[in-house]
Amino acid sequence: MAIRVLLVDDQPLLRTGFRMILEAEQDIAVVGEAGDGLQALDQVRALQPDVVLMDIRMPRMDGVEATRQVTGPGRDGPAKVLVLTTFDLDEYVVEALRAGASGFLLKDAPANELVQAIRVVAAGEAMLAPSITRRLLDKYADHLPSGDEPVPDALNTLTDREVEVLKLVARGLSNAEIAADLFVSETTVKTHVGHVLTKLGLRDRVQAAVYAYESGLVRPGAQ
């Protein structure tokens, strides 16, 4: 079945461009458009998209609040949100990730990257390149724990291997890369990631990455 995509951006010309790119793909169907966050919420309820391509800065309701409401608790099969930003260090990107976005993409990214990002997010993975993750978290290092704070109790529920996996997820590694790093199978990695998400009460890999930094488990610049 085709991946159902909702386009949310306050610039009609950009929405038209995204539609043209995505509708050229056999496995992607653009099911609707919205010009602001409030319209996006209505369209999500009416159209039940798999992925919402969400602009950050919009009138009436911005992309951060719209993302929070689309992916929030109590939603029945919430859509995945892929955030669009003009700048790779947009100050709202971190907030959007905390709100539940599954990743972000620059608006000037090549067409093939946009298509791949839609597929990755629809599959439940995180669209969060390690280099971009590091730059983002370095920028916000002053707002993150120094590492001297007590480790959250929830982290003590993880096994040593699950902690290892969480650290690698925080670095933006894929399941295949983690498997290679730890000399285990991808299936084993998926099992560990699932346990981490369940034990920490997190929605996906992006929230796990943010949690790892906010808890002080991983610090910006650390390898």
Description:
The modification 4-aspartylphosphate is found at residue 55. InterPro entries: CheY-like_superfamily (IPR011006), NreC/VraR/RcsB-like_REC (IPR058245), Sig_transdc_resp-reg_C-effctor (IPR016032), Sig_transdc_resp-reg_receiver (IPR001789), Tscrpt_reg_LuxR_C (IPR000792), WalR-like (IPR039420). With 223 residues, the chain is of the alpha/beta class. It has two domains: 3-131, Response regulator (Rossmann fold), CATH 3.40.50.2300; 153-215, Winged helix-like DNA-binding domain superfamily/Winged helix DNA-binding domain (Arc Repressor Mutant, subunit A), CATH 1.10.10.10. Helix content is 47%, strand content 12%. The chain contains ten helices and five strands; from the N terminus they run βαβαβαβαβαααααα. The protein has helices at 12-23, 37-47, 63-71, 93-99, 111-122, 130-139, 160-170, 175-182, 186-200, 205-214, and strands at residues 3-8, 28-34, 51-55, 80-85, 104-106. Strands 2-1-3-4-5 form a five-stranded parallel β-sheet, with helices on both faces. α7 (160-170) crosses α9 (186-200), α7 crosses α10 (205-214) and α8 (175-182) crosses α9. The longest helix is centred in the C-terminal third of the chain and has 15 residues, at 186-200. It is globular, with a radius of gyration of 17 Å. 37% of the residues are buried. The mean pLDDT is 82.
